[in-house]
UniProtKB/TrEMBL annotation:
GO cellular component: plasma membrane
Pfam families: BPD_transp_2 (PF02653)
Signal peptide: none
Protein's recorded name: Uncharacterized protein
Localization terms from the record: Cell membrane
Keywords from the UniProt entry: Cell membrane, Membrane, Transmembrane, Transmembrane helix
Positions of transmembrane segments: 71-87
Membrane-related topology note: Multi-pass membrane protein
GO molecular function: transmembrane transporter activity
Length: 131
């Protein structure tokens, strides 16, 4: 889905917001249809089990929100500073920001605008799929 979204937005020049909603609805319908055809019934899929951090999960309100979640939430917590570091402190992050702010200037400096756009949209699709 991420590759298809990248093709539509980068090559065809569609707006990401509008095409993103379309791909979301298409994926929702397709997954339901395939699940009905392959499995025969619509069932809810069990998620990952929650990981409770011993002392911190007992804090009122905050403990339940932050310290009693499944593994994907903790991975998301770790990805925030990693994404910040990549975008702010690395060459690829500079290229991503340059392509986002001024693609013509980035292209004149030899940055492959299409490759950066494809990569970022596909990475966004991967992270959305994990969520």
């Amino acid at each position: 889905m991420g590759l298809a979204m990248a093709f539509v937005t980068v090559n065809l020049g569609a707006q990401q917001g509008i095409s993103g909603i379309g791909f979301f609805l298409f994926g929702l319908g397709l997954s339901d249809l395939l699940f009905q055809k392959l499995v025969g019934t619509v069932e809810t899929v069990k998620g990952f089990s929650k990981i409770e951090i011993p002392i911190l999960s007992n804090i009122p309100i905050i403990g339940e929100i932050f310290f009693n979640q499944n593994i994907l939430v903790y991975i998301a917590y770790a990805l925030v500073p990693i994404a910040w570091f990549v975008l702010q402190k690395t060459t690829i992050g500079l290229k991503i920001r340059a392509v986002g702010e001024n693609p013509e200037a980035a292209d004149s400096l030899g940055v492959s605008v299409a490759a950066i756009r494809y990569t970022t949209v596909i990475m966004g699709g991967i992270l959305s799929g994990i969520a």
